[in-house]
Design a protein that fits this description.
By secondary structure, this protein is of the alpha/beta class. The chain folds into 2 domains: about 5-245, P-loop containing nucleotide triphosphate hydrolases (Rossmann fold, 3-Layer(aba) Sandwich), CATH 3.40.50; about 245-284, no CATH class. The chain has 11 helices and 10 strands. It has helices at about 45-50, 80-85, 105-115, 120-130, 150-160, 180-195, 205-210, 230, 235-240, 250-260, 270-280, and strands spanning about 5-10, 20-30, 35-40, 60-65, 70, 85-90, 165-170, 195-200, 215-220, 220-225. The strands form 2 sheets. A 6-stranded mixed β-sheet has the order 6-7-8-3-9-10. Helix 3 crosses helix 4 (about 120-130), helix 3 (about 105-115) packs parallel to helix 5 and helix 4 crosses helix 5. Bound molecules: adenosine-5'-triphosphate. Adenosine-5'-triphosphate binds near residues 12 and 42. Adenosine-5'-triphosphate binds near residues 12, 40, 47 and 48.
C-alpha cells in the first residue's frame, strides 16, 4: 500500500498560545512493499509523522493518502477500524501496553477487536508466537512473568496477529541486547520479503544501512532528504550540517580516506566496506 503525505503540517494544540509545530509542510511518498527508515534527531517529528498514517493524529493542513483512504483535518474518528487493521503500529516500549492475564489473550486481543472469531485469533496467536521466536508454551503464562525482551516480542506478535499490510515500528529494538536486536530486525526484513510494507523509526544508522531500501530524514518537522540509504549517507550537505550521523562502516571509510584509500561513494555496510578494501589492497 503506497502512502503519500501532501503538504502535511501538524500543529499540536493548534488553537492555543502554546501551539508547537510537529510537522511542517511535509510531502513524502512511502513506497509499497519496501522497507523505509525514518530518521532524525530527538524531537524532530518522526513519531508525529508516522502517527498520521493510521490517523492517530490528523493533519492540521494537507492530506495523507493511505492506499485509497484520504486523511485530512476533517476525517471522522468513526470507521477508522479498517485503516487501523491495515496499518499495524508497534509503539516505543510496546511491552508497557500488555494488559491481559495470559500471553495468548494478549496476542488474541487485536484480531478479535478487528472481527476475528476466537478460534481464528487463537490460531493466529500460536502462529505469531513462533514467528517472533518464542516457544508456544509461553502462551499460557502471564506476560508479566516474561523477560523484557520476551514481552517486547509478545507485543510485536500482538500487532502482527491482525495481519496488517503495513507495519510501523517506532524504535522496536531500543533496550534489546545485540542478539535480540538482530533477530527482531531479521524478522522485520523477512516480513517485508513476504510482501509487507515496513516503516521503521530508528536512531541506529547501521540498521538503516543494513535493512532499509529507502530512508527519509526529518529535521525540525521538515523532510530534508529522502532516497536509498547509499545516496542519502553520501549527501555532503547533510553531513556538513551535522543533521545525520553515519553508519559505522561509512565513518571508518572516511578515516581510511585520510590514509590514501579512495571511495567514489562511502560504503555503508560492512560487506561493502570489506569488498572495497580488498579491491584496493589487491590493486584492482
Ligand atoms: N502531545 C504533544 N503535545 C505537544 N507537543 C508535542 C506532543 N508530542 C510531540 N510534541 C512535540 O512535537 C515535536 C516532535 O515530536 P516527536 O515525538 O514527533 O519527535 P521524534 O522525532 O519522534 O522524537 P524522539 O526521537 O525523541 O522519539 C517535538 O518538539 C515535541 O516536543
Amino acid at each position: 500500500m503506497e502512502i503519500t503525505f501532501e503538504h502535511v503540517t501538524h500543529s499540536y494544540e493548534a488553537n492555543s498560545p502554546t501551539a508547537s509545530l510537529g510537522l511542517d509542510d511535509v510531502s513524502l511518498t512511502i513506497k509499497d512493499k519496501l522497507f523505509t527508515a525514518i530518521v532524525g534527531q530527538t524531537g524532530s517529528g518522526k513519531s508525529t509523522l508516522v502517527r498520521h498514517i493510521n490517523a492517530l493524529l490528523k493533519p492540521t493542513s494537507g492530506k495523507v493518502i493511505v492506499g485509497k483512504r484520504v486523511i485530512t483535518s476533517e476525517t471522522n474518528n468513526k470507521n477508522l477500524k479498517p485503516l487501523r487493521k491495515q496499518v499495524g503500529m508497534v509503539f516505543q516500549f510496546p511491552e508497557s501496553q500488555l494488559f491481559e492475564d495470559t500471553v495468548e489473550k494478549d496476542i488474541m486481543f487485536g484480531p478479535m477487536n478487528f472481527g476475528a472469531t476466537e478460534e481464528e485469533a487463537r490460531k493466529a496467536a500460536h502462529t505469531m508466537i513462533k514467528l517472533v521466536g518464542l516457544d508456544e508454551s509461553l502462551l499460557s503464562k502471564s506476560p508479566f512473568d516474561l523477560s523484557g525482551g520476551q514481552m517486547r516480542r509478545v507485543a510485536i506478535a500482538g500487532v502482527l496477529a491482525s495481519d496488517p499490510e503495513t507495519v510501523i515500528l517506532d524504535e522496536p529494538t531500543a533496550g534489546l541486547d545485540p542478539v535480540g536486536r538482530l533477530e527482531i530486525m531479521n524478522l522485520f526484513k523477512d516480513l517485508q520479503e513476504k510482501g509487507k510494507t515496513i516503516i521503521l523509526i530508528t536512531h541506529n544508522m547501521d540498521d538503516v544501512a543494513d535493512y532499509a531500501d529507502e530512508m527519509a530524514v526529518i529535521h525540525s518537522g521538515k523532510l530534508i532528504a529522502q532516497g536509498p540509504p547509499k545516496e542519502v549517507f553520501n549527501n555532503q550537505e547533510l553531513l556538513q550540517d551535522d543533521v545525520l550521523t553515519l553508519p559505522h562502516s561509512a565513518s571508518f571509510a572516511k578515516e581510511l580516506q585520510q590514509k590514501g584509500f579512495h571511495f567514489d561513494k562511502l560504503p555503508i555496510t560492512i560487506n561493502e566496506l570489506g569488498t572495497e578494501i580488498k579491491q584496493q589492497l589487491n590493486g584492482d
